[in-house]
Design a protein that fits this description.
This protein is of the alpha+beta class. It is 55% helix and 8% strand.
Length: 594
């Protein structure tokens, strides 16, 4: 670090124990205090909101901001009440004159700011987290490296922190972070606003928690050479074995080792056989793995933490399709084991030249079977796979059927007190189908086929959530008189008007609509982070499904509007009480979608 000394004037101008303001020729301001024969210098801008510390009060070596009572130690700049510390500058007295070193030790400053950012997230203080992130960006690191601009490093710290402290592994806050980063890079939402939403979502879920458990250690005390030799032979298989046995610490440690040696691609290959076996946690197994891989690719230095968190989530996950209601799906998966899928087993599903497409009347007939229920859905999927249809083509059709299913959601479910289920559960059919397609592009053909069966069974099983008749979609007289475009109808929470406007859009108009609605989904659609996460990831999944559909229609946008436009009760005290009382009185679980 090069020194950058400037002169602040004669020592005689500094009164003991009295804060004074000094400026440099660039206009930077310093709050200076003569105490104990030494001049202490702090940044004059309070790190809270920038009010001048030089107008504060001094007591026992602590300088207090007059506006909000934040307190700072002169000797260190540490904040003893309030939030983040203030920058302190080195000073000296030379020949009766006070000098100050403006130079900044970048490495030390990075450590200080990262620590402050992480402390803010631990305390779920998103405003403070953003301020620390902006200061980190002001150091000039990673500027322009990605579409995240100067906040790139702050987002990366957020990803690592959320992954380290997620108690049960990868969660909604981290999934939201992946999508918000993508939206910032596309220019849809400002980086600063996205950061606040993501910091709160991650902070709320793990507030006050430290790093997770024992999973940060390595397995055993092997030498690096022995570890790599063992890894080359069987490490990916051992990850799956540890997951299946719920040896969570071991699975997490082995995943860190795998990422270290083979990177994100190695982690994907190790986890794919496990993820393709079952529908986990209402689809979250595949959904979260897909988002974890996106985060790991975007923030390579946090890849070990992010993919370790994804592994932990899978180790805790419930295998839904092992439960009695999914008999038809299990039978279909068993039939796949005997099915001679075309193409070499070592080829990725996306690169198979012999994968037949599914178009026109055939696709419509297949989607109708998927929507008819679990059994017809999985049987049709296996039948088409046997005929040579490509798993990705089937997943595309299943994704469209999932959008139709979401658009048909019966809002009466939201009002029921005996059913512990709501529209968020149905959005998983959409996000699982999209995640299965994303994972399937890099999967082996058999794994992609398994994902297609799981997605079809999931969409079919949710038939119970359909409304008995199509929901009303006519615009209200007030909306017609008011006029305006799609966003205005959405902001007015008028589902009928929004759907009517959406039906008039062509493909290009729908693409613009997804982009236009992104800020609403991120900032206005919901209050609780989990609802915001679902609004964001559902929009992203539906847009991806439409963009990959060779003949897209309005089903994807209609599904989005029926989900994000209505005002929904985000905390149902009556339902929580009713479900608990029911169980205590009759011992029976709440009604569900399957």
């Amino acid at each position: 670090m090069k020194s950058d000394w400037i002169d602040l004037g004669p020592l005689s101008e500094f009164s003991a124990e009295v804060p004074v303001l000094r400026k440099d020729d660039a206009g930077r301001r310093f709050a200076c205090v003569l105490r104990g024969g030494e001049v202490h210098a702090l940044d004059d801008r309070c790190p809270h909101q920038g009010y001048p510390l030089s107008q504060g009060a001094l007591r026992d070596g602590v300088l207090t901001c007059a506006w909000h009572n934040w307190k700072f130690e002169l000797a260190s700049g540490a904040c003893t009440f309030g939030g983040e510390p203030v920058r302190r500058y080195a000073t000296r007295i030379d020949d009766g004159r006070v000098q100050l070193n403006r130079a900044v030790d970048t490495a030390a400053e990075v450590r200080r700011l990262v620590a402050g950012l992480r402390e803010a997230v631990v305390r779920d203080e998103p405003a403070r987290a953003l301020r620390e992130g902006l200061r980190l960006g002001a150091l000039g690191l990673h500027r322009g490296e990605t579409g995240l601009g100067s906040l790139h490093l702050a987002f990366e710290v957020l990803a690592r922190d959320g992954a380290e402290r997620a108690e049960y592994g990868f969660d909604h806050g981290l999934a939201l972070l992946a999508d918000l980063c993508a939206w910032v890079e596309r220019g849809r939402i400002p980086a600063e606003e996205a950061f606040v939403v993501a910091a709160h979502a991650i902070g709320e879920a793990s507030t006050r928690l430290g790093p997770r458990g024992k999973g940060h250690g390595k397995v055993g005390a092997r030498s690096p050479l022995a570890r790599i030799a063992d890894f080359e032979l069987d490490e990916p298989t051992k990850v799956s074995e540890a997951l299946a046995a719920e040896r969570r610490d071991e699975a997490e440690a082995r995943m860190r080792e795998l990422v270290e040696i083979r990177g994100t691609a190695g982690a994907r290959r190790a986890l794919m056989p496990f993820v393709a076996q079952h529908l986990y946690d209402y689809g979250h197994g595949a959904i979260f793995l897909s988002k974890a891989l996106e985060l790991a690719e975007r923030f390579s230095s946090a890849a070990d933490e992010v993919l370790a968190a994804s592994t932990v989530q899978l180790a805790w996950a419930t295998a839904d399709t092992s439960l009695p209601p999914f008999t038809a799906t299990r039978a279909a998966l068993a039939r796949l084991a005997d099915l001679a899928l075309p193409g070499p087993d070592g080829a990725a599903a996306a690169t198979r030249p012999d994968a037949a497409p599914l178009e026109g009347a055939e696709r419509a007939a297949f989607e109708a079977e998927v929507l008819a229920g679990e059994q017809p859905a999985v049987e049709a999927t296996v039948r088409w796979l046997a005929r040579g249809a490509g798993p990705l083509a089937l997943l595309g059709a299943i994704g469209h059927a999932a959008a139709v299913r979401l658009a048909r959601f019966d809002s009466a479910w939201e009002a029921r007190l005996d059913a512990e289920v709501g529209v968020l559960d149905v959005t998983h059919a959409v996000t699982f189908a999209e995640a299965a397609a994303a994972l399937g592009r890099e999967a082996l053909p058999r794994e992609a086929a398994q994902l297609a069966v799981l997605a079809a069974g999931f969409v079919g099983k949710l038939r119970k959530a359909d409304a008995a008749a199509p929901q009303a979609s006519a615009t209200t007289a007030a909306t017609r008189a008011r006029g305006g475009g799609l966003l205005q109808a959405v902001e007015a929470r008028d589902v009928g008007a929004a759907l009517a406007i959406a039906r008039e859009l062509d493909a290009a108009g729908r693409r613009r609509a997804f982009a236009e609605l992104a800020p609403f989904a991120a900032f206005d659609a919901a209050v609780r982070p989990i609802f915001t996460a679902h609004a964001v990831k559902t929009l992203e999944a539906l847009e991806r499904l439409e963009s990959s559909d060779p003949r897209p229609d309005g089903a994807y946008l209609a599904a989005l509007l029926t989900h994000v436009v209505p005002v929904r009760r985000e905390l149902s005290a009556r339902r929580i009480a009713a479900v608990a009382k029911k169980f205590m009185s009759d011992g029976r679980p709440p009604d569900g979608l399957y």
